[in-house]
Amino acid sequence: MKTIYFKDLPQYYNQELEISGFVDKIRDLQFVQFVVLRDSSGKVQVTIEKNDANEAMNQIVTKLTKESTVKVRGILHEAPSVKLRGMELIPTDLIVTSQSAEELPIDILDYTNKSNKELRLDNRFLDLRVDRNYLIFKAQTIAEMAMREYWLEHNFIEIHSPKILGTASESGAEVFKMDYFGKTVYLAQSPQFYKQMAMAAGFNNVFEIAPAFRAENSHTAFHATEFTSVDCEISWIESHHDVMDMEEMVCKRVMQKLTESIGAEYFELYKKEWSAELPTFPRIPLLEAKKIIREKYHYSGEKEYDFDRREEELIGIYAKKEFKSDYVFVTDYPFEARPFYHMLDPDTGLTKSFDLIFRGVEITTGAQREHRLDVLKSQALMKGMSLEPLDFYFNFFRYGMPPHGGYGYGLTRFLMRLFDTESIRDVTFLYRGPNRVNP
Length: 439
Prior knowledge:
The chain is α+β, with helices and mostly antiparallel strands. It has 11 helices and 16 strands. α7 crosses α8.
């Protein structure tokens, strides 16, 4: 039988139908029983009068537990007196397809209770049943779809790069080692080298949405050992500003699609609004941004060549106040704070790089890459790196390499700030951190 989603029920008034869902609420009164069912799209009330004809169903409901799954056949009626959507299903048959244990390990609806966070993660399958959490993953789906839509319209190719590497990626720090048939291999921190290989292959524009791994023994709200990284790379650029131009358009497309698709649901559940129209993202060089923070907010960061968390928050506040923007690009980082493959500006000695800050949290790092092999090797040596393990990477640059650049985007950090949650754990389907590898 065709699956009927609860959101589509008004199409079926006065028709016999069959629906399935979780038991959300049960009210067993003297003359009538009410069972509220829930699926991923909404809720509906099932009303069962207590009489001889319904005796079998009445007995089932008496023993029914919340979060059980049931299948109900009956007639759907308009019912203005019913507060839940002004409709009710009058059943002719009710079958329990899976009986839930009476006592749940967590209170599903108590999503604000901070004391049981670990217990909720232990029982994530229950935690995700609440509609507020489900909406987060609808947003994730729409955001990824919007990015893909934009990139495909602009002649991008999607790639799937390997996650098992023979050489530690990028700096070699904070990588997971694993045994590979008696050899030591590494899990990829990012697809960076392979995005650049695609540029050497003449792909022009590529993107990838895939897992990445960081062996960071970090317990902050912003870090995970496994996460979804959104990466893209484009050829034939003049500077890192071309990359920022592209990312700004992608971010605007994402917010447009989110607002159009689920903006009303977001307001209903969170009592907040998104805007489909975003102002131009301001671009502020790092050293200038640090000066602004010192002068306006009387704060000096702990890092000389980068932002600390408080500086990210403050530049976000500044961008919102001065430019009415939730987004701000911080640009032109010193070489000390950037990987060896970021291009240096010969006039300033700074890298042609940027971070994108969204509501006070860094969600992107990007740059124009160094495409000249001799300069690239020189910069690797400046970082104290050994050239031999990187020879496979340098080989990409030996036979012609377009000027290119790109970025890596933290999807969970974006969702965390979009929904104003405490941690990326709240917006990750199954979080992985130093102390969590289950479920």
